[in-house]
């Protein structure tokens, strides 16, 4: 009997492509749902099925979920997040999908409620998932190394500065590759490990420590400068307002947490900030002898 494919939404983004690559490497049949079929084909070649469509197009959603065994739910921060994701979930349930794994917001954006418009959106989808008669798990990654930390590293390379509202605030950064590994594990495992999983790296690292690590990696001084966060404008778009809220919550030390989810599920430690900085600096400065 053939294995039903897993459907991955958001497959052409930073995290989505990592998830697809891992599933393909494991010999799993994969279908991707995308508005950009040319991009998906250039990324994955003939190794995946491509379902072209949009969350707002019910017919394309129904076609995408037909015959699917599992759904990996991922979409960008936007005003459409709740509507889009619930539409995908409902279509998958109607098609008898066995399991749904959602990439959710960071735990500190969701609980307690009222601090993040992004967290509120993810919470609404999680609540809907919890009401369904299928297996569901929501993964709540802490701040991604490939996003916020990568931006900090890039600025430090060009300006020799690390700027943050609170230099002592710590973050349990998580590498997107570890998020992808956990997502694939929960997608394929015999059983899920709970309704929500808070995924973090192994250490809490402050902005002062990041500046010190960059000083060592670059072999030149990187200053740590404190600058108050900008207020989130009510006139800004959803993503920019959400990011401004993330900055304020991180400055309040809300992201200073670690969990044992990665080692418990994967049997290994998550990737470290120190190693990620070395990897990024090596790539940016073309150091051929460094092997991540």
UniProtKB/TrEMBL annotation:
It holds the Pfam family NmrA. The keyword Nuclease does not apply. It comes from the Bacteria. Signal peptide: none annotated. Keywords: Plasmid. Residues 7-230 form the NmrA-like domain. PANTHER family: PRESTALK A DIFFERENTIATION PROTEIN A, PTHR43162. This is NmrA family protein. It comes from Sinorhizobium medicae (strain WSM419) (Ensifer medicae).
